[in-house]
Amino acid sequence: MQIEGSIALVTGGNRGLGKAFVQALLDAGTRKVYVGARRLIEADDPRIQPIKLDVTSKEDIQAAAQAYQDVNILINNAGVAYVNSHAAPTSIDEARQEIETNYLGTLAISLAFAPILKQNGGGALVNMLSVASWYSNPVLGSYGASKAAAWSITNSIRMELRAQGTLVTGIHAGFIDTEMASSFPGPKALPQDIAQATIEGLLADREEVLADKVSHEIKAALAADLSAFYRRIQQQWDSSTR
Ligand SMILES: NC(=O)c1ccc[n+]([C@@H]2O[C@H](COP(=O)([O-])OP(=O)(O)OC[C@H]3O[C@@H](n4cnc5c(N)ncnc54)[C@H](OP(=O)(O)O)[C@@H]3O)[C@@H](O)[C@H]2O)c1
User: Does the keyword Flavoprotein apply (predicted)?
Assistant: First the structure.
């Protein structure tokens, strides 16, 4: 698709990867970016329009869909992750928040903006997923479940919106160097690189973007021997928590 001259909305655009998406869109020639955030941000670039958009709020979503009818690229980026075990006392509340944000938030915004994308020629709907959409690990189990659900609807929404000409793209990545992954050691991709891979994916009309090396490696490993893959993941987590 053509990005130059487009009008985008990025959820959770105030920090982390969302901020990198905003910059990458502007660098690629986007005319205006609505930057969704739970609390309005200050912007010093006239092409940025801050908007209040809590992705778990029906009222915010409805108001945004009524007010911003010119959007032709939607990036569902907002997300939460809790590091926990299923056995922890808070895990159900945290799992609920992850589902509310990562899955239901993504779904609700996609449904609200699908007619807007249609009226603007199809455009693109981008969902920020994760390698955790494909596999589980012991301390991000409920996060993985919410991302697996988001991956699943990405694929079904794609089929539903194909007739209206909307490109529906899922982005997968391993750890990215943002606040969300700050408690994890080890190599992390730069948010700017993930955002740039996303822009390149959109320009090439790709429906799935493996935005870093880790996502390529994990996809290949999962297709090889699932039991061996999970034994390796378990060993890694066991040794990192010892
Ligand atoms: N970091 C990683 O390792 C990694 C890897 C793969 C995929 N991802 C995905 O990448 C996306 C961005 O994550 P990140 O790494 O940039 O995390 P982050 O640094 O924690 O930022 C999360 C962003 O989501 C926003 N957000 C959370 N709940 C929201 C809500 N209800 N409504 C609106 N905005 C909300 C946050 O806003 P506030 O400032 O208000 O909290 C913040 O802007 C997420 O979908 C995440 O799952 C991250």
Answer: no
